[in-house]
Design goal:
Blueprint: E1 2-6, E2 11-19, H1 20-29, E3 32-40, E4 43-50, E5 56-61, E6 66-73, E7 76-80, H2 83-89
Antiparallel strand pairs: 1-7, 2-6, 3-4, 4-5, 5-6
Length: about 110
């Protein structure tokens, strides 16, 4: 698990939405990869990070599988947190059956 600090102001994005099966690959083609995900109510929130440029994107996915870019920016920093700290703060995990098939059994 990781925390993420932004060294520059976030840029709010005016409603850039698309079906998830189109939006996530499009973001990945820019070199950004999902480094964190969590639930906000019924929505899945993703933090994507480009490892060399440090560009980042926060996206939200609805239950109807529409993904919207919430914010993006440049020059962020990924800060790792020890596994025992994460477990103490969040003892539950997303079961494999609720993960996309390409991410099952990743830990």
């Amino acid at each position: 698990m990781a925390a993420f600090l932004c060294a520059a102001p976030a840029v709010a994005v005016a409603s850039q939405c698309a079906p998830t099966q189109l939006m996530i690959p499009a973001l990945q083609r820019t070199g950004e990869q999902v480094v964190w995900r969590g639930l906000a109510g019924t929505h899945l929130v993703l933090l994507m990070l480009h490892s060399s440029t440090r560009a980042w994107t926060i996206a939200g996915t609805s239950p109807s599988k529409i993904t919207c870019i919430v914010a993006h920016g440049q020059d962020g920093e990924l800060i790792t947190v020890g596994a025992e700290d994460v477990q103490a703060r969040n003892p539950t995990r997303v079961p494999d059956r609720e993960r996309p098939p390409n991410e099952q059994h990743r830990r």
